[in-house]
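Hey,
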Amino acid sequence: MSEIKWIKITTDIFDDEKICLIDALPDPDAILVIWFKILTLAGKHNSNGLLMMTDKVHYTDEMLATIFRRPLNTVRMAIGVFEQFGMIEIIDGIISLPNWEKHQNVDGMEKIKEQTRNRVAKYRKKQKNLALGNVTGNVTVTDGNALEEDKDKNKNRLDKDKNKKRITTTSSG
């Protein structure tokens, strides 16, 4: 799946009771950093909350420790906490985020994908028409009425001016 550049984090995340419980544990900052790294990794690969490097390769604890640049024991401890608190599930060795919709606007992503599909289809159609020589733009043609009206107004004004001059010269003479 394609990479998404954002995840949802609510402003009250640090009021969440699971986060408060993590704050009471030893080394809470490292655990929370790992949590955010897991969320961003899941968003980056956009596999519906599964931590998968490819379609066939899932991340191991060792891989995560390397990627997150954290000690393996810290990563394992954090994963154990997240699993205990129901923040992740591990099924057949694959780490899954059960509430992924909470962290990712799944409906919004589908809307973006649909808009992108439509935009790409429109672009490809345009490119195909250009290649075939069927070039037509969406140009709106309007009549040049304004120019004709201006000419008529100018002519009428000139005629009035001539009439005024005639009246002025005949009355003064």
